[in-house]
UniProtKB/TrEMBL annotation:
This is Chromosome partitioning protein. Pfam families: AAA_31 (PF13614). It comes from the Archaea. Residues 12-196 form the AAA domain. It comes from Natronorubrum thiooxidans. InterPro entries: AAA_dom, DNA_Partitioning_ATPase, P-loop_NTPase.
Length: 278
């Protein structure tokens, strides 16, 4: 690809599987031959670094520069005076994709962004990707966003335009998904953007239960163009793998549910590429 594909995992709710989806889609795309960069804007908990067993390495480093600097007044000086600045922000994972970890300073710069003029407040991250990251030659840039709407989130959404919405099955989560579509319409109108949900990924699904089966059918009826081709099943193996610093793709002897989850992410990753490049 001449220009990297960008997508952001987002739903205005925590704990729905955004980080898990980002990690697994990133590895699936890498396994399909794409050069992938994952960027964690989701906050100081640094869950993507944990997911790949890199948190200790990152915390033991000086963490200078870090992703929070991209949003503050020091960035121009840093970019001009530090050679290979993007490489210094980036860690290699053992499963293929590269990772820009989050930093606790993101919380502070989110507040500082509120003082910026609206016309420049939400384009900072897009400019960073265009000017500094895209020249690195990545094919895909995946962004993990906070589970709430703030200034960092809006920067990530505007930079990505394409949204991946992981969702657990339930009435509250479906209401959140409906609210997301309404919010995107408002953002597009007020910020002159083209944000759109490219893929809804039903996550942690127990399809053998009548309730989850019914909710899957309802979701497919409501969003036939955007629901992922494969739902991701509930799997304790995925949780165990994450605790061990890997995705389900790193498991040597995956369970049947973990195998189905890997197959789902591979199919969904391929479909995501098709949808974005239609």
């Amino acid at each position: 690809m001449s220009k990297p594909m960008r997508a952001a995992a987002f739903l205005d709710k925590g704990g729905v599987g955004k980080t898990t989806a980002t990690a697994h889609l990133g590895v699936a795309l890498h396994n399909n031959g794409y050069d992938v960069l994952m960027i964690d804007l989701a906050g100081k908990q640094n869950d993507l670094a944990k997911h790949f067993g890199l948190l200790e390495e990152w915390e033991e480093s000086e963490q200078k520069p870090n992703i929070a600097h991209v949003f503050d007044d020091s960035w121009d000086y840093i970019a001009e005076n530090i050679d290979g600045v993007v490489e210094k922000l980036t860690l290699a994972t053992e499963e293929g994709p590269d990772l820009m970890p989050a930093h606790k300073g993101l919380d502070q710069v989110d507040d500082e962004l509120a003082s910026r003029p609206v016309e420049e407040r939400y384009v900072i991250f897009d400019q960073f990707l265009s000017e500094h990251v895209e020249p690195q030659g990545y094919d895909v840039i995946l962004i993990d966003l906070p589970g709430l709407t703030n200034n960092i989130t809006l920067n990530g959404l505007q930079a990505a335009e394409n949204i991946i919405a992981p969702i657990e099955l339930g009435e509250f989560e479906e209401a959140q998904l409906e609210a997301l579509h309404e919010d995107l319409e408002e953002y597009n109108a007020t910020l002159d953007t083209k944000l759109s949900v490219q893929m809804i990924i039903p996550n942690r699904v127990q399809a053998s239960t009548n309730l989850d089966s019914e909710l899957l059918d309802e979701l497919a009826d409501e969003y036939p163009e955007t629901v992922a081709p494969n739902h991701v099943p509930q799997s304790q193996d995925i949780r165990n793998a994450q605790s061990d610093g890997m995705t389900a793709f790193g498991l040597e002897e995956p369970s049947s549910t973990a195998t189905r989850a890997r197959d789902a992410y591979e199919a969904n990753a391929a479909e995501l590429v098709e949808r974005i490049h239609e």
